[in-house]
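Risk register update: the risk of archive-format incompatibility is retired. Evidence:
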Amino acid sequence: MTDQDLREYRSHARSTGTFGRVLCSAREHHFVIDGPVWNGCPGEELTPGEAFMAAIAACGVELVEVLAAAEELPVGRVEVSIHGVVDRNDPIREDVTVFNRVWLGYEIEGVSPKDAEYLVDGVKRRCPLYGCLAASVPDLDVEVRVT
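Archived output:
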């Protein structure tokens, strides 16, 4: 294994003195995440679930662009939407909470439907966040549209 093969990610979170509000850091970047209102938290900032979903969508957009550039595909605008549901009345597992359903929608401009599918397949193979979803979510639906 070379250093090129190793990917490391570090973040830190700490309480702020406001119930349910968390100060997060990654490298020199700082941001606030609030617990959701249904837990009695402020819910004014992104919640952990929303941040996780946004990170999956961001990974999808970034990797479509990276993979398209590597293949010299003329990709234009890329959008990824994501929606996840946790049904506490119908848990998938007893030991940990996972999403019951997740829908991912890709819109990719400037490439053929075949190339768009190829790029999204590349994201699936390369994005560790998507891998976490694919390994745990029983109802994972990925749609790809070209515009």
